Amino acid sequence: MGEPLVATGARLRLGTRGSDLAVTQSGMIADALSELGGFDVDLVRVRTEGDVNRAPLAQIGGTGVFVTALRDALLRSDCDVAVHSLKDLPSAPADGLTIAAVPTRAEVRDVLCARDGLTLDTLPTGARVGTGSPRRAAQLRAARPDLTVVDLRGNVPTRLGKVTGGELDAVVLAGAGLSRLGLLDAVTDYLDPSVMLPAPGQGALAVEVRTADLVPGGELAAAMAALDDGAARAAVTAERALLSRLEAGCSAPVGALARHADGALHLDAVVGAPDGTRLLRRSASTRTSGPVTDETGAPTAEAVTAARDLGIRLAETLLDAGAADLMPTGPAAKGETTAAGTTGVSAAATGSELMDSDRA
Ligand SMILES: NCc1[nH]cc(CCC(=O)O)c1CC(=O)O
């Protein structure tokens, strides 16, 4: 240690899962790293339990399983860089690893891909809409209580196939994934965030490396700084701070979206009862006193702190409004607790249920 891991022209191994979306996202970052840092980037396949095992994600530990295998590969030095969909990252940081870059965010909205050009407004009564995400299900049911929400697993092309194959009338997916895969033609409705708030971090990537390799002034640190988008990082910081503050207090699905406008950072968030019978939605803003980014494009410390405070403040507003009581059943709904904290949900399930469990 001490020496920068890499010098210009050096090889960098980028670990990726095998799905089309993961390979596409990793390829985009690999290209950026060779352009920005002159690196020679090799893609290394990392198999994850979530890719192999078709059991419901809740049983195999939530979307965290995708992330854990990549993080283990980084920590074992099987690869030097890992690219994650930020929304799949648990909000707790990983020991020894750093999210060194949050590149410019892609499409943040969820989209509807329906047969015959149908939209959320024009889907017929009782239409079958597929999603595996409790967050999407809750907001769909709130917008259209008459729809039949069908649990759905599989990667993006598999899920689209349920519509073309006639099994479902529509599916809800992240616009970002479709955009990266070149599949935006399948979109029939871009869901407005006033109806469907995306998952915290949706549409953003996280580029993770070993902390020890981020030598100040080193080539890797410089490339990561160039890849980082300060506005995107501030926005996802607010969304993830909200998520981690809520994680302590409730285990219901969460949507959140932060946007910069008129010199302020605006955060909208929703907590849904898992059965979709109730939604709790609040928003808050923080005036950004100084610039969001410094001259290198990195977010300023003040902007990151203000974003985190905004997320925590809005989470507390939601908790004060009863976010923790949205669960319809179980002792937690009756306000009882045990030595283990909130009852009815194990600590592990609390974390994974908050995540957006549609798999990429
Ligand atoms: N949970 C799976 C997942 N993780 C990231 C994306 C899409 C890309 C993104 O949001 O950045 C998807 C697919 C989806 O939700 O439709």
TrEMBL record:
Q: What SUPFAM superfamilies does this protein map onto?
A: Periplasmic binding protein-like II, Porphobilinogen deaminase (hydroxymethylbilane synthase), C-terminal domain
- In the record, S-(dipyrrolylmethanemethyl)cysteine modifications are located at C250
Which residues are in the Porphobilinogen deaminase N-terminal domain? 12-213
Could you tell me which residue ranges the Porphobilinogen deaminase C-terminal domain spans? 235-319
Reactions catalysed according to its record: 4 porphobilinogen + H2O = hydroxymethylbilane + 4 NH4(+)
Is-annotated flag, keyword Magnesium?
A: no
Q: How does it assemble?
A: Monomer.
| Recorded family membership | Belongs to the HMBS family.
Name the record gives this protein: Porphobilinogen deaminase
Recorded source organism is Tersicoccus solisilvae
Name of the gene encoding the protein in the UniProt record: hemC1
